[in-house]
Task: structure prediction
Amino acid sequence: MKSSKIKQMQPARAATVRDESNVQRLYYELRDRAMRYDFRPGARINEKQLGEQFGVARATLREALNRLAAEGLLEFVLNKGFYRKAISVDEVFDLYQVRIALERRAVMLAIQRASDADIASVKGFWVDVMKHSAAMSTGDMVLADEEFHRRLVALSHNKEIMSFMDIVTRRIHVARHVDIEQLSSWNLTSFDAHMNVIDFIALRRTEEALQTLTDHIDMSLKRAIEITKEMVARFFLVEASASLQAADRSSKSEKVTA
Result:
């Protein structure tokens, strides 16, 4: 009897593992779409369409959407559903303030805890990126930039700071992508700051490391605000154009009917 019960329970455990795997894969796909603003800001997420597209149950889809809402990429409205959060200059500003606080603390801990070899590894990573930067796509450069900051924060050996930084990084991803895509002289100054920060950490010079990092992120903040305003204007123009086209089609239809 006991053996029979054990055999009956095993498929249930396997199903749970498969469901979790589906949720994770779906979460990553929808997260990438949200980060790229494939979902128009302020638009309602069509759950039925997504469920049919990915061939997943409503419960699986809801779990993935709830994770994105918890991270601030989506918002949930009771009795209405999930929406892509609107682009907000104030929100971008607040996120960069959080980023400054987290990275400054991470640098302080890194100077106390990181080994010389760990610090040298992060520096080596960025030196290699710079060697190949000319041949890298914008997307790859963004990922490399984010990876540098992830490795910098990891030197703190504080998993909670790393976890929160991952969330902030995802929510400002699009602004950073647009910024690097423009490849202004500011980008080159920003990339140089990476090397300066890691050198000061290696020398255990806390004040210089913190000041360089703060100046670097402050510059990033100003650029992010400019880019966010550009994105708001861009989406507004797209929506206005779509509305004009719809009105024009409607007008022509009325004339044909008449």
